Amino acid sequence: MVDSIDYGRLMHGAMRGLIREVLSEVAEDGLPGEHHFFITFDTQHPDVDIAPWLRERYPDEMTIVMQHWFDALEVGEDGFAVTLSFGNQPERLVVPFDALRTFVDPSVEFGLRFESPEAEDDEAETPETEGTAEAEPAAEEADAPRKDADVVSLDRFRK
Predict the structure, then answer these.
(1) How many Cβ atoms from other residues are within 10 Å of residue 54's Cβ?
(2) Full-model pTM
(3) Residue 157 has pLDDT above 70, yes or no
(4) In CA terms, which of 2, 7, 44, 144 is 20 to 30 Å from 56?
(5) CA–CA distance, 142 with 135 (Å, rounded to integer)
(6) How many other β-carbons are positioned within 10 Å of the β-carbon of residue 25?
(7) What is the rounded CA–CA span in Å between residue 101 and residue 108?
(8) 69 vs 15, 49, 66, 82, 83, CA distance in Å?
(9) In this predicted structure, what is the pLDDT of residue 116?
(10) Cβ pair 32, 105 in contact under 8 A
């Protein structure tokens, strides 16, 4: 029996489930209205599968944009795969949900940020800051107008 409830882990699971459900609906029906996503992920995660030239260009993290053109979006229990265009070159990306750092839909000012255990340790040594997510799109859809989005941080739920 454990001594306490790990709310942080439970919140991360719930947030990943929300993203899984949203992406599953988009895979089935397409993006509704003005919705679009900026998704930042850890390129060093062992289950991320991207082209070597992308990993070289983005050695730590990468932000993708799902807006005007994306193809073959597949969503599974543990992650998603999508084909995006980089300089008119289609590239397949496989991203596990555990690799996600941020998920932002600026059309409705919605965003989620996932904290890694290392980031949580760093934050314990620095004051908490509230803020907005600023995505730096890596795909050609980056020219679209953007708004900052509110970010839900798990810090407000910690003791």
Answers:
(1) 18
(2) 0.71
(3) no
(4) 144
(5) 9
(6) 13
(7) 19
(8) 25, 20, 7, 11, 9
(9) 65
(10) no
What mean pLDDT is predicted for residues 46-70? 92
Residue 8: φ, ψ to 5°: -60, -45
Cα–Cα nearest to 112, from 35, 14, 28: 14
Q: How many residues does the chain have?
A: 159
Q: Position 1: which residue type? A: M
Residue that the structure tokens 């895979």 belong to: 27
**Which of the pair, 142 or 97, is modelled with greater confidence?**
97
End-to-end CA distance of the chain: 21
Give how far the C-alpha of residue 9 lies from the chain's centroid of Cα atoms, to the nearest Å.
Answer: 17
> 75-88 burial by CB neighbour count: b if 16+ within 10 A, else e?
beeebbebebebee
Q: Could you count the other beta carbons within 10 Å of the beta carbon of residue 157?
A: 11
